[in-house]
Amino acid sequence: MVRLMEMSSSLLFAIGMFLVCGLTSGRSISEPNNSLLSSGGDSNKLIAQDWVKITAAPAARVTHVPGATVELECEVSGSPPPTIHWIRGSSPLNLLNEMEANVVSEASPNALVRVRSRLVLEHAAPTERTYTCVGRSGSKTAFATTTVVAAPHHGRQKHNITSDIISTLLNPSGGAQKPRIVLFYTVLLELMGSDVVLPCNTIGRPRPDIYWLDVNDNLISGQEPRYRVLPTGELIITNLKWSDMGGFTCVARNALAKDTITTFVYPILSEE
Q1: pLDDT tens track for 71-94
Q2: Three-class SS string for the chain?
Q3: What count of Cα atoms within 13 Å lies in the side-chain half-sphere of residue 34?
Q4: 27, 154, 183, 224: which has the fewest C-beta neighbours closer than 10 Å?
């Protein structure tokens, strides 16, 4: 009984933190009007209804040197686990409403997560362009827009533009690229006994190798049958236990460098 009360208090605190962070940035469509906490109806759901919020939007305006690499980052919180899409150019509001969600995984449909996406623009164009981060969770949508522009003293340098075109024609693959993890969860809350999938999507040339470390920084290599790393880089955790609480680290490595992220997993005790 004491442990149940402690877990319930922890859940309220964790969800409270999500809600507080969710008030800071981004625009949402079809905001929920009622309490987000699940009560009574379905004890297998952490959140009573679909909910999504952009908790860290990319800068409204990004200035760069033409031909340089630009990285935009967007963080979305919600339940069920949100998906993130990037749209280039202006897009009518009804398109955002009608976008079909590209679900990361159906293994943890009731989880409350914070997901981060990075859009890497190699050889950024000298012309002004707009990019919109769209977070989608069930029937709810949130979005934030950023404008990418060239630095004023570089915008009209034809030599730079010509060099970029020639470089691209001679080397279409873009040459070697350090690994970068571009989609991952920073936090996941889910009921004990559930199966969860932690994404770790990467880019890089040569293609990065991906491996995971558990909460004790041990390499996940089959010693724990409940943990399994997919060829796509996702980590599957079956039958989530209290001992799984902590940070799981994804490492992406190629011949040039490595990139790492950590997902904090918080198992929640069902009140059944």
Answers
A1: 999 999 999 999 999 998 865 445
A2: CHHHHHHHHHHHHHHHHHHHHCCCCCEEECCCCCCCECCCCCCCCCECCCEEEEEECCCCEEEECCCCCEEEEEEEEEECCCEEEEEECCCCHHHHHHCCCCCCCCCCCCCEEEEEEEEEECCCCCCCEEEEEEEEECCEEEEEEEEEEECCCCCCCHHHHHHHHHHHHHCCCCCCEEEEEEEEEEEEEEECCCCEEECEEEEEECCCEEEEECCCCCECCCCCCCEEECCCCCEEECCCCHHHCEEEEEEEECCCCEEEEEEEEEEECCCC
A3: 7
A4: 224
Tell the CATH superfamily of the 50-97+107-150 domain: Immunoglobulins (2.60.40.10)
Q: HSE, CB side, 13 Å, CA atoms: give it for residue 176.
A: 6
Asked whether residue 147 carries a pLDDT value surpassing 80, the answer given is yes
CA R_g for the chain: 21
pTM: 0.77
| Cis ω before 92 (30° cut-off from 0) | no
Q: What CATH number should be reported for the domain whose range is 177-271? A: 2.60.40.10
Please answer whether residues 195 and 110 qualify as being in contact, where contact means their C-beta atoms are separated by less than 8 angstroms.
Answer: no
In tens, the pLDDT along 160-211 reads: 555 554 444 444 445 888 999 999 999 999 999 999 999 999 999 999 999 9
